[in-house]
Amino acid sequence: MHRSRKAWLLLSSLLILSTSSVVAESRLHRSIAPERKRVFLALTVFYGSKCSYNRTPASARLDNILPGFSPVAVSADSGPGRYPWKYNITTTVFWVGEQATAENPVPNTQSAWDLEWVSHYGGCDDPSQRASFTPMQNPFYAALPYNDVTEGHTRPEAGLVIPWFKNSFVRDGQSVCKGRWLAIRHGKHLCYAQWEDVGPFQTDHWQYVFGSERPRPNINRDAGLDISPAVRDYLGVSGMDGCDWRFVDLDEVPDGPWALYPENNPVARLARLRRMATTATARKVTVRPKARGSRG
Predict the structure, then answer these.
(1) The pLDDT of residue 116 is above 50
(2) How many Cβ atoms from other residues are within 10 Å of residue 199's Cβ?
(3) Is the pLDDT of residue 188 over 80?
(4) What's the pLDDT tens digit per position in 195-220?
(5) CA atoms of 263 and 272, how far apart (whole Å)
(6) For the whole model, what pTM was predicted?
(7) Which of 57, 182, 204, 273 has the largest count of CB atoms under 10 Å?
């Protein structure tokens, strides 16, 4: 009995010492590295085997992690007008498989999210050779200067600045921006395209893409939007031109040439399903039962 009591007292003392050391270490960490605590707080939202956006700590506030950021007003309801327009953005043209030049130092054989972009697209989307193959992906695509993934991980600020993040996040390192739809307007013309690459020039300018800033200064008249040859031709853009753009939800995208090709194109899949349903309805034959007493 006496030995059991001594053992219990010894175990209690060890537990108390262990708890004290953990508390002391935690306080020391907070005192010598407050900035690490802030970064770690952000990373724990996404970087884990069981990461969940809904478990974001209450102390992870926008002004703590992103001081000075002023997000644009986004309506909580889906539908036209949910995302505001960005006006008169200098727009340049790029394409899948474009080789590096003096004006375009980075080749477009890969995208920020697809290392085999040319292969998955079906070939080089050079405007002078597009008739030589049928694209396997949507030829109406665009690039914006923000990548929500860096070094294989979701950026810490992504969950705080991307309006659709909560509903689209699947796992750490998987982009919620790739394939997102944009409405692009030039003069009286309006078309729709998917976000498939990052640029021009910048990869981290969320203050412009999701906020109220203008594109950062660059050699292409402060360009802030890259568009594919198909978008250029549809809108009638020539050279470096000015366009308006905004994000749109899938249900806002109407049928059009941007819905002709499959693979990464949900609008094309929806249009195909609608056509199949219409065909099935047209082929359906209604057989009316014969009236009693009638001769056939």
Answers:
(1) yes
(2) 23
(3) yes
(4) 999 999 999 999 999 999 999 999 99
(5) 12
(6) 0.69
(7) 182
Domain ranges of the chain: 64-74+81-279
The CATH number of 64-74+81-279 is 2.40.40.10
Q: What is the dihedral of CA 65, 70, 75, 76, to 10 degrees?
A: 20
Q: Which residue has the tokens 């956006």?
A: 53
